[in-house]
Amino acid sequence: MSRLAKSEITVPAIAASSSVERCIALLDTAARGENVATAMFEAVVMIQRGREDRVTDGSIDPEQRGMLLMASVRAQTGAATHLPTDYDRASLNIGMWAMAYQITMWAESLDKTSRRNSDDVLDFHDGARVLQNELENIVLREKIAERARSRLARNLPSHVPVYSV
Predict the structure, then answer these.
(1) How many CA atoms lie within 13 A of 142 on its CB side?
(2) 124 CB-near residues (< 8 Å, 6+ apart)
(3) CB 30 within 8 A of CB 40
(4) Tell me: the pLDDT tens digits for 86-113?
(5) Which of 49, 57, 113, 163 is most buried, taking the most CB atoms under 10 A from its CB?
(6) Alpha-carbon distances of 72 from 14, 23, 65, 90, 98, rounded to whole Å
(7) What does 106-132 look like in DSSP terms, one character per residue?
(8) At what angle do helices 11-31 and 62-82 cross, to 10 degrees?
């Protein structure tokens, strides 16, 4: 948006800009170690949606791309530190690599993306989806464990094991 005067800012540009700001906030939350799985899950979903919605909302600009990529590196560092130890770090690295390419494609024209190797585009999409699914599974395990701990604290019977997450 830095290239446009205020009067030239379009509705799609505003939508893309608010999505970028929200993604950066989520990634920075993960980088700080706060609700890492939830924040990263939401960011991955928004990034994929942003890339897919370029037809109507337009692409992000290079400055936004750079800010998102830097935030994703910070988030990856936070995730490597704060996600459960049983989560495979190689899987995190692959997912973050795919997410970086999703960000890159969000910033490019549809024409440029169409010239990419279609298998590469599918791999980037699928890699980001795997990360999204794995993060959602971590979130679900955390919710189950929290409910089980809550029941134990209230001395309610439970047949669900309390996991250390």
Answers:
(1) 13
(2) 98, 101, 102, 105
(3) yes
(4) 999 999 999 999 999 999 999 999 999 9
(5) 57
(6) 21, 9, 10, 16, 11
(7) HTS-HHHHHTS-HHHHHHHHHHHHHHH
(8) 20
Local structure of 85: helix, strand or coil: coil
What is the rounded CA–CA span in Å between residue 134 and residue 8? 40
Please report where in the chains the tokens 């170690």 appear, as a residue.
33
Tell me how far apart the alpha carbons of residues 56 and 123 are, in angstroms, rounded to a whole number: 24
Question: What's the predicted TM-score (pTM) here?
Answer: 0.82
Its sign, for the CA torsion 25, 29, 35, 40, is: positive
pLDDT band at 115 (very low <50, low <70, confident <90, very high): very high
Which among 109, 113, 24, 14 has a CA at the least distance from the CA of 69? 24
- pLDDT reading at 1 higher than 50: no
Question: Cα–Cα distances in Å, from 133 out to 137, 138, 159?
Answer: 6, 9, 26
Distance of CA 129 to the CA centre of its chain: 10
Whole-angstrom Cα distance, residue 112 to residue 109? 5
d(CA 94, CA 19): 23
Tokens coding 10:
């379009």
Dist. CA 3–CA 91, nearest whole Å: 37
